[in-house]
Amino acid sequence: EDEDEDEDEEESFEVPVKKRKVGKDPSVDTSFLPDRERDEMEKLEREKLRQEWEREQEKLKNEDVGITFSYWDGSGHRRTLKMKKGNSVGQFLSKALKELRKDFPELRGASTDEMMYIKEDLIIPHHFTFYDFIVSHARGKSGPLFNFDVHDDVRLLSDASIEKDESHAGKVVLRGWFERNKHIFPASRWEPYDPEKKWEKYTIRDTAVKH
Prior knowledge:
Elements: H1 2-22, H2 36-61, E1 64-72, E2 76-84, H3 89-100, E3 115-119, E4 122-124, H4 130-136, E5 170-174, H5 175-181, E6 191-192, E7 201-204, E8 207-210
Parallel strand pairs: 1-5, 4-6
Antiparallel strand pairs: 1-2, 3-4, 3-5, 7-8
């Protein structure tokens, strides 16, 4: 009987404690308990944050960016185009080609597929967007891939260690010109962009530049 009484007392003691746990008594740790309401709230909060992040990214992609580049046929012919950060390199080359055809007869029969975009000595595939490089702070062989304006050429600086002064105009090149001249500087330095490859130092010719 004593044992029964003890059990009755224990049960009567446990009931209000359980009610307090359900009531979220701040002094009771409930983190180990399954809580559908809490899980649902966390799921809703994550979804809200995801949607906010996506809205911010879409806003960023729709921002204008000035792309300074040179049409390169052995010498540079500089231009600037206004693009959206979310535009692809292919879209940029298509627009650049329309602009360049006015002044360069050899481009009048060229297609976008025949054009190459070289940024910081890397050949950038057409499907990448400017946004891709901006958000990843990608780096090239000779400077950052995420700056599309142009500062002082690092080749002319006595102190080339300041990253903001290391952004070079990208080059727009006919693939045929590249194939004929890839053994000659600067084309001899160009190589396909690999997002997995990390450049620890910027290099210009045989000179390494720490960043």
